[in-house]
Specification:
- The chain has 227 residues and is an alpha/beta fold.
- The chain is built from 7 helices and 10 strands.
- The protein has a 6-stranded mixed beta sheet, with helices on both faces.
- A hairpin with a 5-residue loop joins strand 3 and strand 4.
- The radius of gyration is 20 Å and the shape is globular.
Length: 227
């Protein structure tokens, strides 16, 4: 038994909040994220995602503002990403990092460094930065947060219907910095949270392939749209 709990039990004082905190921390340590790994094709050497983002999304009516409401059933990974991105739930970071290390890291044996897609919007704390830092620490790989950069703003990719439109909008908007200080040529992994059409990662891969310090390029995302 936790020593702090034992102390409170023997003293006759055991606040319910202490018990709840202890149980929550215990569950977070033992929780596992279920996965269904998918390979994704593109100009990269190899690419994988942990799972689909959603299992199903069914219209259930309209909101007072006239928007269609959906009953969305997420995969474990999709739910964790959704909570991290849109609810700032940092408790999702460790399970997602552990899932990546257990299931995807072994698929990239030659990778020497990690970078991420430039964020599509400004946030006080970027979810992909938290995930990449956690993965880099546990995988023992260097993480470069500023190799790929946005050099101009784009509209929301979800507002563009076709992949060709997304490629056209993104190609002039993404560049790279020579952030690697050592000489050499390294295999790189580009991390992203959600794989949709693959346009963003395709543009990033093509851009990074012009960097003389990068050899083979691999990509990984936590979830993907569709099947």
């Amino acid at each position: 038994m936790n020593l702090q709990l034992l102390f409170f039990k023997e003293s006759g004082y055991c606040p319910i909040t202490l018990i709840i905190d202890w149980l929550v921390n215990l569950l977070l340590r033992i929780r596992k994220v279920k996965v269904d790994i998918r390979e994704v094709a593109g100009p990269w050497k190899k690419g994988y995602v942990l799972d689909r983002h959603v299992i199903s999304s069914t219209p259930i009516g309209h909101s007072p503002n006239g928007y269609i409401k959906f009953d969305t059933k997420y995969t474990d990974t999709g739910r964790a990403i959704n909570k991290l991105k849109y609810r700032n739930d940092a408790t999702q970071v460790n399970p997602l990092v552990d899932s990546f290390i257990a299931h995807l890291a072994p698929l990239f044996p030659s990778v020497s460094l990690i970078t991420i897609m430039p964020p599509s919007r400004v946030r006080a704390t970027q979810p992909m930065t938290l995930l990449a830092q956690g993965i880099a620490e546990k995988w023992k790989k260097p993480y470069f947060n500023n190799i790929l950069v946005k050099i101009s703003q784009t509209g929301l990719m979800k507002d563009l219907k076709f992949k060709a439109e997304k490629l056209s909008a993104l190609t002039p908007a993404i560049g790279f910095h020579d952030q690697i200080s050592t000489e050499g040529c390294w295999d790189a992994l580009i991390l992203d949270d959600l794989f949709d059409s693959g346009a963003s990662l395709e543009v990033a891969t093509n851009m990074l392939s012009t960097y003389h310090k990068v050899n083979d390029i691999y990509v990984a995302a936590f979830t993907k749209t569709g099947k």
